[in-house]
């Protein structure tokens, strides 16, 4: 750290800033550098003189100057910059926080820096119909959606709970020729068979007690548009035949009705598990699967794109700032580290909930690791100290659904009740899935260890 005027001991300031903000620069109101950590110089690949003009230092003579524009406008900074160092081209993410005391004018800026691996294509942020990413696999998915949207074929989105399947479905609709038509969505797992049939196909007056008038279903309401069938694997077998009939004839017959009604609807469906496995298990009709799974789209889970977490955190914090009693100006490096170490079984939805929790329990303009939910902070340590459940000998463990169940069991230390919560299902449903997938290994050392750990924690 360099001395400026009567600044405190350089090593103390360097250590404090490195701990609180990571590699960083401190700017005065004129955007001149007043402090710089050694880590920041290493990332930038050059000596940073005190008094240097930060916008020129970071953006040079480039046409695109996102950091300069945000600083001059007095706005928080979120940008990824390309830097040329002795080791070659690198990419640096810059987060700028205005330093304001007691609501007064801006006293200066704290610019936090961190390295981003990959190429320019990998690091460029992209917003695609509500989905934020800089991950290359996600960007390939975006391009696939743009291509398949122009067709009329049915699309099946495969992804874990909370990963954004409905956003993908909406993107298909928005990129298609049907964009001016309606978009309807229904969760097929949320209703019993009789109500689901009525919701999908509608009913006529007198069809059942309480049916006092003709009521259109989602197929009619989505006419000339797109119908999104979420968790389509949960449609009961007896209703699957009627759904297949609609897809083949492009007509629906309301509950209690006799005359078919023509409908023009594109189907986008979604599931968190393999329809092929469900067909093999007798839970899903093969002919319906082939009608729905014309174009499969696989949505990566958040744990496979951890590089997106800082980006998603920035966007979610902005949203929460707009409607929360608390305003967060900065997320500490410790909090980001904890968020990146967690596996996120609930994906982006769980990340959003974790940040909402941090907003509620914490105070001040800094969001710290201590504000995060206990499972985020303790998950990694628990996975180290609690033995995993024994690996099953069954070959079914090679399929994605089995791996997902095994991962949840491992994350929960073999505790099936907690594993069921991680998977978003009841304990009975998890038990049934374990039996179906051939994963019913004896509940031995892992669960006893988990139970013992729980008892130890409850003792005063």
Strand neighbour order, sheet with most strands: 2-1-5-4-3
Helix content range of the residues, please? 40-55%
Tell me the number of structural domains: 4
Tell me which CATH architecture of the largest domain applies here. Answer: 3-Layer(aba) Sandwich
The quaternary organization reads as single chain
Strand content: 15-25%
Number of strands: 16
Going by helix content, strand content and strand pairing, the class is alpha/beta
Spans of at least 5 consecutive residues whose pLDDT stays below 50 are 1-8, 380-397, 441-460
Q: What form results from the Cα inertia axes? A: elongated
CATH topology (fold) name of the largest domain: Rossmann fold
Describe the protein's architecture and organization.
This protein has 20 helices and 16 strands. By secondary structure, the chain is an alpha/beta fold. The protein has four domains: 10-118, PAS domain (Beta-Lactamase), CATH 3.30.450.20; 127-298, 3-Layer(aba) Sandwich (Rossmann fold), CATH 3.40.50.300; 302-383, Orthogonal Bundle (Helicase, Ruva Protein, domain 3); 389-453, Homeodomain-like (Arc Repressor Mutant, subunit A, Orthogonal Bundle), CATH 1.10.10.60. The chain has a five-stranded antiparallel beta sheet, sandwiched between helices. 34% of the residues are buried.
Q: What is shown here, in short?
A:
By secondary structure, the chain is α/β, with parallel strands linked by helices. 42% of the residues lie in helices and 17% in strands. The protein has 20 helices and 16 strands.
Secondary structure layout:
Blueprint: H1 10-21, E1 24-27, E2 33-36, H2 38-44, H3 54-59, H4 66-73, E3 77-85, E4 88-99, E5 108-116, H5 120-123, E6 126-128, E7 131-133, H6 136-149, E8 155-158, H7 165-174, E9 183-187, H8 193-201, H9 218-221, E10 225-230, H10 237-249, E11 251-252, E12 261-262, E13 265-271, H11 275-280, H12 286-292, E14 295-298, H13 309-323, E15 330-331, H14 333-341, H15 347-361, E16 366-367, H16 374-385, H17 400-411, H18 416-423, H19 427-436, H20 445-458
Helix pairs in contact: 6-7, 13-15, 17-18, 18-19
């Amino acid at each position: 750290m360099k001395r400026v005027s009567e600044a405190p001991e350089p090593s103390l300031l360097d250590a404090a800033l490195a701990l609180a903000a990571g590699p960083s620069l401190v700017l005065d109101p004129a955007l001149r550098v007043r402090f710089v950590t050694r880590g920041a110089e290493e990332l930038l690949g050059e000596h940073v003189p005190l008094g240097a003009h930060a916008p020129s230092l970071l953006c040079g003579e480039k046409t695109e100057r996102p950091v300069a524009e945000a600083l001059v406008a007095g706005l928080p900074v979120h940008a990824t910059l390309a830097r040329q160092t002795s080791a070659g081209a690198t990419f640096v993410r810059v987060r700028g926080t205005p330093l304001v005391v007691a609501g007064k004018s801006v006293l200066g800026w704290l610019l936090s820096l961190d390295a981003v691996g990959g190429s320019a294509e990998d690091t460029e942020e992209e917003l695609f119909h509500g989905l934020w990413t800089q991950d290359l696999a996600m960007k390939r998915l975006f391009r696939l959606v743009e291509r398949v949207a122009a067709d009329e074929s049915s699309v099946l989105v495969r992804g874990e709970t909370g990963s954004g399947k409905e956003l993908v479905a909406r993107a298909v609709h928005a990129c298609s020729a049907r964009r001016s038509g309606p978009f309807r969505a229904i969760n097929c797992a949320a209703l019993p068979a009789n109500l689901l049939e009525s919701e999908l196909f509608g009913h006529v007056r007198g069809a059942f007690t309480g049916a006092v008038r003709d009521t259109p279903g989602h197929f009619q309401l989505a006419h000339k548009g797109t119908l999104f069938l979420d968790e389509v694997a949960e449609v009961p077998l007896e209703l699957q035949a009627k759904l297949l009939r609609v897809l083949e004839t492009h007509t629906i017959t309301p509950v209690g009705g006799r005359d078919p009604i023509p409908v023009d609807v594109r189907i986008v469906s979604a599931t968190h598990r393999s329809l092929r496995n469900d067909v093999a298990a007798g839970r899903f009709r093969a002919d319906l699967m082939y009608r729905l799974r014309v174009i499969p789209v696989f949505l990566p889970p958040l744990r496979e794109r951890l590089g997106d977490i800082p980006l998603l955190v920035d966007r979610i914090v902005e949203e929460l700032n707009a409607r929360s009693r608390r305003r967060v100006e900065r997320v500490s490096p410790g909090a980001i580290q904890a968020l990146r170490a967690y596996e996120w079984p609930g994906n982006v939805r769980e990340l959003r909930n974790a940040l909402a929790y941090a907003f509620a329990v914490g105070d001040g303009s800094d969001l710290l690791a201590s504000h995060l939910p206990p499972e985020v902070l303790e998950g990694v340590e628990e996975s180290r100290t609690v033995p995993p459940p024994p690996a099953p000998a069954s070959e079914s463990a090679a399929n994605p659904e089995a791996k997902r169940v095994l991962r949840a069991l491992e994350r929960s230390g073999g505790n099936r009740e907690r594993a069921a919560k991680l998977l978003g299902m009841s304990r009975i449903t998890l038990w049934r899935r374990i039996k179906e997938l051939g994963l019913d290994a004896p509940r031995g050392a892992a669960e006893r260890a988990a139970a013992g750990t729980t008892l130890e924690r409850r003792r005063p």
